[in-house]
From TrEMBL:
Cross-referenced InterPro entries: LptD (IPR050218), LptD_2 (IPR045659)
Region described as Disordered: 1-42
One GO cellular component term: cell outer membrane
Name of the protein this chain belongs to: LPS-assembly protein LptD central domain-containing protein
Annotated LPS-assembly protein LptD central domain residues: 213-736
Organism, scientific name: Hymenobacter mucosus
Highest rank taxon of the organism: Bacteria
Matches recorded under PANTHER family: LPS-ASSEMBLY PROTEIN, LPS-ASSEMBLY PROTEIN LPTD
Cross-referenced Gene3D superfamilies: Lipopolysaccharide (LPS) transport protein A like domain (2.60.450.10)
Length: 927
């Protein structure tokens, strides 16, 4: 609609329309003369006495208003020309540059450049259309707003505004021209309700939008109940961007049974740049009057380069007393340490993940090295504390462009925290050449000839392995002693003083593998024949030389250096086919078809005798016709026994004896075709359902062996029912008889009086089932292997994720089961005096994981394991999760075991107030 000039004190109104001065023809522009009196300010710093500022056109530079003022209202606009005011009624809206004000009633006093906004009350007394002030990215909801568009200062009463993750409620806020806010009787909270569940109550506060909130003395109010918790000042960063910032890390305090009172995870986070962040934290323990409690330090470096790589490096070191400082029956009965405590422990972890790029090399690292007791003594995380072994790898691999060559270099380390054994592979080098067809190498053109299928491939492996596990100095299973050796293995401590010993005990070797493919052919249209030749060499750079010493009744072994080449050669011929058995039903039956797929395969492999070529064994010359007698067992060896030259070497001793193997394998799978009841479009009326994923049988027969020609038969079965029930069975069957001491006899079982074909030697059975009726494709309700939020190893920089992020309350209940059992036939079960008969079942355990939704915001979960062989639960954990809108409660109880204990934590969800939490725990660390 158009606006026309009106008399003072009157307004033109059209119900249900919007009144706007920007619609032509324009409203009258009132140009008041510039005041001659000095400019004065009111109590809130709003400049008065200025000239006319309500202009539609941009200012010419002489007026106070620098840009166009746009205003509109749904009901009407009233102009008071003499008072130089415009009053906007019902859903009024005023825009001036980046400033926007919306309210039920807005008054524009252009004589003072002042905009006043107020709400209104409905018939029930509730406030409606409360003023909403926006300036840039900042938004303020208030009861009343007074704003000077010239000085950009204002007063806002009963205000609510969001700063970062927090919300500010204040009785009165003054805003200056720098956009800083000064509040009186303010409340700071991360709860987004009008009446928040909790807040920090402060008489005064200063807000710098996008940067920080600073308060004077404050106290915490929970549920409108003031608490004595507070401090002399408050500081809350409210950054707009996600850019990291440096700052102090506040510690947690408490008492530990083994080290006294403590301050944990105090330190500093340094955001070096946009790619690197450094976190330095430490723990300090008071100890007692006699001993210092120790300390722990952590250094973490996180780095990331977008589209290239990311990684995290951490180093942890702890020093503590070897005995507990506090003495009590409760503590001593539940200290939970699986091994003796050590004074100094360390842990190093490094993960480097590259972004795959075509044609480029790939460097990756996954390093985890620690002292045997570090995680047992410094973490409540069961997955780390109970892990018996760690492994580390650093690798680089690359596929050469325009060449069939790929290579990889890897450094590897394995560590057993139970035994203290550490093995290093420095380095592990592999080089491969993809299959190359001979006619292409010769430059010939393809003409469909048989020789065009001839191809060759090559693989090279080089390893240098070191270990601190020194094996027993004996051969033939420890029966033949060595001079100067030990009959027991030992663990060498890792240190600079032992580097020379580690190098002397290193194992170095290289393997070359050539594969010659002679093509693939079809016989009788259905049988596929694939012949091939494999040739390989194993290179060692030292060997063992033996000499029998009659006076010592032992053998002396000397290590000689030099290149040693061991060869392997084999030819193979594979014959295989596939046939099907199908049953088809017509009509509207649920099951339309059933198909059985059978894949038999027969392999022939011949290996020549290379004993004389490889010289892998040495014959000891015994003088005087004497025999070698083991002084420990009394076992007598024949004259001139054969001893291995490469005993315990890296790749072992390749098979040099002549062999001719006939192998047989049979693979089966069964599936059916059923009607798809979920299809309503007719596009996919049928679907396939697998009944048996695999039923496989494997065995072989060595024609040239002098005994035990027939190898064990391996039978495996696997299936999945309804995508929830998984069953896997693997078994081994033996065809030979056993004597009373369970040693095999070279006679088949069908040759005995009570004949049978085979005996079950070993078996394993694994089944799992997922009970989850309403989950569908949703994530699990309760996360597994999650460390407690008040784990002593976690500090304030670790985010406490919002409860909804990792607990799915939409799933009413779920249960996951896993049962595993292994069987080993030990021959006749013999009952010994005072002891029960031994069981052939070596292990049998049941794992249960589940959760149930008790209420809309309360969930209970559990994880347990029961060992049927030892008849005890191995590990049990009970979890409780409670959502309190802006708070969360989680608890965990481990009723028994080395890591028994409990913890309960109530904490604010916001990362900004992640230190605002109350934790109670009783574990082996602070019982």
């Amino acid at each position: 609609m158009s606006l026309v000039a009106v008399q003072p004190g009157f307004a033109q109104r059209r119900p249900g329309t919007t009144v706007s001065p920007d619609v032509r023809p324009a409203p009258p522009i009132i140009n008041a003369p510039q005041p001659t009196a000095p400019v004065r300010s009111d109590s809130v710093g709003l400049v008065t006495g200025a000239g006319d500022s309500l202009r539609v056109a941009a200012a010419t530079g002489k007026g106070a208003v620098a840009t166009t003022v746009k205003y509109k209202a749904q009901d009407s606009i009233r102009f008071e020309v003499q008072n130089k005011k415009a009053i906007l009624y019902d859903k009024a809206d005023v825009n001036y540059g980046e400033m926007n004000i919306k309210a039920a009633l807005i008054t524009v006093d252009y004589s003072r450049n002042l905009v006043t906004a107020e709400g209104k009350k409905d018939s029930t007394g509730r406030a409606q259309d409360r003023p909403l002030f926006k300036q840039g990215a900042e938004t303020y909801q208030a009861g009343r707003i007074d704003y000077n568009i010239e000085t950009k200062r204002g007063r806002i009463t009963d205000v609510v505004t969001q700063q970062g993750e927090g919300y500010i409620h204040a009785e009165t806020i003054k805003k200056n021209d720098l956009n800083e806010l000064f509040g009186v009787r303010g409340r700071y909270t991360t709860c987004n309700l009008e009446n928040p569940h909790f807040y920090i109550n402060a008489s005064r506060m200063k807000v710098i939008p996008g940067q920080k909130v600073i308060t004077g003395p404050f106290n915490l109010v929970i549920g409108d109940i003031p608490t004595p918790l507070g401090f002399l000042f408050g500081y809350f960063p409210t950054p707009k961007s996600t850019k990291r910032a440096s700052g102090l890390i506040m510690p947690t305090f408490g008492q530990s049974a083994d080290r006294g009172f403590f301050l944990r995870n105090m330190g500093y986070y340094w955001a070096a740049n946009e790619h690197i962040g450094v976190r330095l934290t430490g723990d300090l323990y008071s100890g007692n009057a006699e001993r210092f409690g120790g300390w722990r330090g952590t250094a973490e470096v996180q780095y990331i380069t977008r589209y290239r790589y990311s990684g995290l490096f951490s180093f942890n070191y702890s020093s503590q007393p070897t005995a507990q400082l506090l003495s009590s029956t409760a503590v001593e009965a539940s200290n939970g340490y699986a091994q003796p405590r050590s004074a100094r422990n360390f842990a190093v972890a490094w993960s480097h993940t590259p972004v795959a790029r075509p044609g480029g090399g790939r460097f990756s690292a996954n390093v985890n090295i620690s002292s045997n007791n570090y995680y047992r003594q410094n973490t409540y995380n069961a997955s780390r504390a109970l892990t018996p072994a760690f492994s580390s790898t650093i690798s680089y691999s690359k596929q050469l462009r325009n060449a069939p060559i790929n290579y990889a270099v890897q450094l590897a380390q394995t560590q057993n925290t139970q035994t203290g054994t550490m093995d290093f592979t420095l380095p592990d080098l592999t080089l491969g050449v993809a299959r190359q067809y001979l006619y292409e190498l010769a430059g010939l053109e393809a003409r469909g000839r048989f020789y065009e299928q001839l191809a060759v491939s090559y693989d090279l492996t080089f390893q240098n392995r070191l270990s601190n596990n020194i094996p027993a100095s004996a051969i033939n299973g420890g029966a033949i002693p060595l001079i100067g050796g030990s009959s027991e293995a030992s663990i060498m401590p890792i240190g600079f003083s032992n580097i020379s010993k580690l190098l002397r005990n290193s194992q170095t070797g290289m393997q070359h593998r050539f594969g010659i493919s002679l093509g693939s052919y079809t016989l009788f249209k259905h049988i596929n024949i694939t012949p091939g030749v494999n040739y390989g060499q194993t290179w060692y750079f030292k060997s063992l030389e033996y000499e029998y010493v009659p006076t010592a009744q032992a053998v002396r072994a000397d290590t000689t250096t030099g290149l040693r080449v061991l060869q392997t050669l084999s030819t193979n011929l594979n014959l295989g086919t596939t046939f099907y058995g199908t049953v088809v039903r017509s009509g509207t039956h649920k099951i339309q078809a059933l198909r059985h797929k059978v894949t038999p395969n027969i392999s022939l492999q011949y290996t020549p005798d290379l004993t004389n070529t490889n010289r892998a064994f040495q014959t000891i010359n015994l003088t005087g016709g004497t025999s070698l007698v083991d002084p420990l067992t009394g076992r007598t060896y024949a004259t001139d026994p054969l001893l291995p030259r490469y005993n315990g070497f890296l790749y072992g001793v390749p098979t040099s004896t002549q062999a001719a193997l006939i192998g047989f394998s049979l693979q089966n799978s069964v599936e059916m075709k059923v009607r798809n009841s979920e299809d309503t479009t007719g596009i996919t009326p049928f679907r396939k359902v697998s009944l048996i994923d695999g039923l496989e049988l494997n065995t072989s027969y060595n024609i040239l062996a002098d005994s035990f020609n027939l190898s064990d038969m391996v039978l495996s079965f696997r299936t999945q029912v309804a995508k929830k029930l998984n069953i896997t069975i693997t078994s081994t069957f033996d065809f030979y008889q056993q004597d009373s001491s369970r040693r095999p006899i070279n006679k088949f079982l069908w040759q005995q009086e009570k004949w049978r074909i085979a005996r079950l030697a070993s078996a394993s059975f694994t089944t799992s089932y997922q009970f989850n009726p309403a989950s569908g494709n949703k994530k699990s309700a309760i996360p597994r292997d999650v460390a407690p939020v008040n784990d002593p190893t976690l500090g304030s920089p670790n985010r406490i994720d919002p409860y909804e992020d990792y607990v799915n309350f939409e799933i009413p209940w779920e249960l996951s089961t896993n049962f595993t059992a292994t069987y080993a036939n030990q021959g006749p079960l013999i009952a010994r005096a005072g002891r029960p008969r031994s069981s052939p079942y070596t292990s049998a355990s049941l794992n249960l994981n589940g959760s149930v939704k008790l209420t809309e915001t309360l969930r209970f979960g559990f994880s347990t394991n029961y060992d049927f062989i030892n008849r005890n639960p191995a590990f049990t954990s009970l979890d409780v999760f409670k959502d309190l809108h802006c708070w969360q409660i989680n608890g965990n109880w481990r009723p028994f075991g080395n890591y028994r204990g409990y913890f309960v934590t109530i904490a604010a969800k916001s990362t900004l107030l992640q230190s605002l939490k109350l934790s109670r725990n009783k574990t082996f660390l602070n019982n």
